[in-house]
Write a structure and sequence with these properties.
The chain is an all-alpha fold. The chain has two domains: 2-111; 124-205. 88% of the residues lie in helices and 0% in strands. It is elongated and about 135 Å long. It starts with a helix and ends with a helix.
């Protein structure tokens, strides 16, 4: 981005330099044209022809001045816009990258640092569903209920029972995963302890 800012300033400088160069050429050409005019030495037509020929160089100098100024300003505007877009894209990239790093750090801390004490996964939801399934089973066995109601309750009880089994399997998978992570953490801690002891022993030997 420093290079872009330098190029912006360079284009502005070149535009101003071309403007001054064209203006100097215009002024010099106008002076030469005025000096070459001789109203007393000929008729009016020849004087006008000489004036037209002399004004060609000043007009060319003015064109050089305006074109240089326009080129410098337009180039600086384009580079300034590109620099602005690059700055926004860079800031957006840094922000998203920091958010990604923070999310990875949070997830890593939750996984790699398990809470002390025995693992306790709440099973209140599955217990409540099991109790509800038992109540529905007892209602199905009740002879006072209509056959349609009994069939609906039986289907609901089977669905709840399947949900309970699924929740228990998910809890077991989560428990196994956390226990595996805890074992890996203990092994890593042991390796770090042995490494620190070996480093301390090497320093004492020196």
């Amino acid at each position: 981005r420093d290079t872009a800012r330098y190029l912006i300033g360079l284009l502005v400088f070149l535009g101003l330099l071309g403007t001054f160069w064209g203006l100097l050429g215009t002024i010099g050409s106008i002076g030469n044209t005025i000096q070459t005019l001789d109203p007393s030495g000929g008729d009016t037509a020849s004087v006008l022809d000489a004036l037209k020929a002399g004004l060609a160089a000043p007009l060319q100098g003015m064109g050089t001045a305006f074109s240089s100024s326009l080129f410098g300003l337009s180039g600086s505007l384009v580079l300034g816009f590109l620099d602005l877009q690059i700055g926004r894209a860079q800031n957006r990239f840094y922000t998203e990258f920091e958010n990604w790093l923070s999310s990875i750090t949070d997830v890593g801390s939750d996984i790699l640092i398990p809470p002390p004490g025995p693992l306790a996964i709440p099973a209140a939801g599955s217990d409540e569903l099991r109790v509800l399934s038992d109540k529905l089973s007892r209602l199905v066995q009740d002879q006072s209920a209509s056959p349609r109601t009994s069939a609906a309750m039986a289907s609901l009880a089977e669905s709840i029972q399947g949900l309970v089994q699924h929740m228990r399997s998910e809890q077991q998978m989560l428990r196994d995963f956390v226990e595996t992570q805890a074992g890996e953490q203990r092994e890593l801690r042991g390796v770090l302890d042995r490494l620190s002891k070996s480093i301390g022993t090497g320093r004492d030997g020196r």
